[in-house]
Amino acid sequence: MYAQMVKTDGACVKSLEDMEPQERAFQERIDAGQKIEPKEWMPEGYRKTLVRQISQHAHSEIVGQLPEGNWITRAPTLERKAILLAKVQDEAGHGLYLYCAAETLGISRDEMYEQLHCGKAKYSSIFNYPTLSWADIGAIGWLVDGAAIMNQVPLQRCSYGPYARAMVRICKEESFHQRQGFDVLAKMVKGTPAQKAMVQDALDRWWWPSLMMFGPSDDASVHSAQSMAWKIKQNSNDELRQKFVDQTVPQADYLGLTVPDPELKWNEAKGGYDFGQPDWKEFFEVIAGNGPCNAERLGARRKAWDDGAWFREGLAAHATKAEQRRTAGQAAG
Amino acid sequence: MSSAPFPTVDQAALFEFLLRMGDNALILGHRLSEWCGHAPALEEDIALANTALDLIGQTQLWLGLAGEMEGKGRTADNLAYLRDATEFRNVLLVERPNGDFGKTLMRQFLFDAWHLSMLQALRSSADKRIADIAEKAAKEVAYHLDRSRDLVIRLGDGTAESHRRMREALDDLWPYTGELFIGDAADEELAAAGLGPAPESLKAEWDGVVGETLTEATLKKPADGYMQRGGKRGVHTEHMGFILAEMQFLQRAYPGATW
Ligand SMILES: [Fe+2]
Ligand SMILES: [Fe+2]
Ligand SMILES: [Fe+2]
């Protein structure tokens, strides 16, 4: 999932009885499964939490261009190059829809960038890991897009209309990405021993960071409880992680790969896998900015923004001139 | 022309021509893809990836046809990934480093203006396979030119800073534009057989589009001084080896592997 540990502002989830009439009416609409639209009244906490969540998701899409972009120039065939280009282009498009969805809540894209660049806003921990071989491109599609889908499919039913609608469009493309990623790996495991080893190495490195994407267990989190009450989160992190493992392990088996978890075992009674915990210390270090690529990723985004200032200013200046010429023309005519 | 393919033209000249078209698209597409995730605005990331994608698609068509007509069983991928620099036939312009975003846009514009005229002429090629590729590619490239032309105008006539950058880009790249219009024996063969235009014949239209655009952009057209050349016959700049080292890495490091 691309939004991890999104904070809400409240200290506890209010009951309907404790709410003022306006907030109560709002909560009742959410409980009845109605969508909230941009112009409607909403509690400030709801608005702020959504801005955090949607912008974090948007930032993840655009930072996510970088690890995959890293291999576009080295893609092994013209077809693979085209597929990867199209995928990364889709991710930029996802960023665009999501920034637009967040803008309906009264924040501008530039403000959101500012928050990303100064380190105030986060993006998914997963994109702070390096892409070291071509198999990593397959692994990202399969695991990272796969984990994103787990989280985003329920978000299609989220209470905030623009976010829910953006998700519908995005989910279609993410499942396409996942199949393409799997296909990259399926081809490689049928190839030479070196290719197969590359795929196993990619799974060894991406498995745990992928499980971390869902965030630590949030059964006791007030933030998650509030987000669930608002229906901007539908499942607990552990539920989603379990679903992901249950879906992914048979696919790893199909590819003839070993999931790097000695505790992984089918549990007949629960009808799902038992599995080990990721290294949460590592997760918190990555979130805090100490992952293997945090500095490079954020540095690349800042550099793109700073180096592009003259470009954006040039376009703005031209637009002003054109407008002046237009009004001058009208005045004369 | 339909019964036997290319009966009246020297096969080597035709192969040469198809490589030129394919390699221009491949190398420019590759250069554009270097920007991925680093462009000055999200819309530009999307647009550049889209242009790169079109160019890689065109590469598959041109090099695919080149391999087919060569008849030695080489695929588009074989041609893209297993030739060395001296066998590449792209013009030097497309291998110029990206530089700042202004330089990338100026390179794109100067190329697009030529590319569109070329493809439009090729739509009436005596060979249907060439005409078909040109027909499809011309639609894509018309859009590339709309975009690059528009941005050159807006940035040329933007701030003092954007104007300066576009002027420097134009001055730097200008000496690489001449090669687009210099014909050789292979070009003459093709033109004589009605398969493609003589390169010089595209110059007037290009001058028109470029001249108008630069005027609107408030940029001064540089004088036609000495023009760099060599790419069309396989003599490239120092950059080419690095492009190929990167692009061909997997195919070279794992010979015979399929991906
Ligand atoms: Fe995405
Ligand atoms: Fe996503
Ligand atoms: Fe995706």
UniProtKB/TrEMBL annotation, chain A:
One of its GO terms (molecular function) is phenylacetyl-CoA 1,2-epoxidase activity. GO terms for biological process: phenylacetate catabolic process. SUPFAM superfamilies: Ferritin-like. It holds the Pfam family PaaA_PaaC. One of its GO terms (cellular component) is cytosol. Coiled coil: none annotated. InterPro entries: Aromatic_CoA_ox/epox, Ferritin-like, Ferritin-like_SF, PaaA, PaaA_PaaC. This is Phenylacetate-CoA oxygenase.
UniProtKB/TrEMBL annotation, chain B:
It comes from Sinorhizobium glycinis. Gene3D superfamilies: 1.20.1260.10. GO terms for cellular component: cytosol. Pfam families: PaaA_PaaC. GO terms for biological process: phenylacetate catabolic process. SUPFAM superfamilies: Ferritin-like. InterPro entries: Aromatic_CoA_ox/epox (IPR052703), Ferritin-like (IPR012347), Ferritin-like_SF (IPR009078), PaaA_PaaC (IPR007814), PaaC (IPR011882). It comes from the Bacteria. This is Phenylacetic acid degradation protein.
